[in-house]
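dumping this here so i dont lose it
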């Protein structure tokens, strides 16, 4: 038996190079659970958008951390060190000049992970 609801979910993967390694930013089930804890409901996406307007750096760092799938630190040979990236400083290699890129990757992963609506499905059929 097929689950039609699962067909509505898009898999969105976006990446940033952090600590010399490409890191995937992805909002899977666990990431959405963390967002639900933070905002009270995943239906409260407007609250997230308001937070982004009020505290963009803080919120962007938090969202990137939640969506970061690999938090390991690697040595120069690419081997795991057993340590994790630091939540407060993991984006420090990016400057304010990079804010557009970081925002695009994180928000692309976030919104790309939302279920498609019937309207989205109709638009994609029309563009084919």
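and the seq i came up w/
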């Amino acid at each position: 038996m097929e689950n039609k609801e699962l067909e509505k979910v898009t898999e969105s993967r976006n990446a940033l190079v952090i600590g010399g390694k490409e890191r995937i930013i992805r909002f899977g089930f666990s990431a959405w659970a963390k967002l639900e804890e933070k905002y009270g409901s995943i239906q409260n996406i407007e609250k997230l958008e308001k937070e982004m307007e009020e505290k963009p750096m803080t919120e962007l760092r938090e969202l990137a951390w939640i969506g970061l799938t690999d938090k390991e630190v690697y040595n120069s040979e690419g081997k795991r060190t057993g340590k994790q990236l630091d939540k407060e400083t993991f984006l420090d290699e990016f400057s304010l000049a990079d804010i557009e890129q970081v925002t695009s990757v994180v928000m692309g992963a976030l919104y790309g992970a939302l279920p498609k609506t019937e309207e989205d499905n109709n638009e994609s059929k029309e563009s084919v």
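The beta strands are 14-18, 21-25, 72-74, 80-84.
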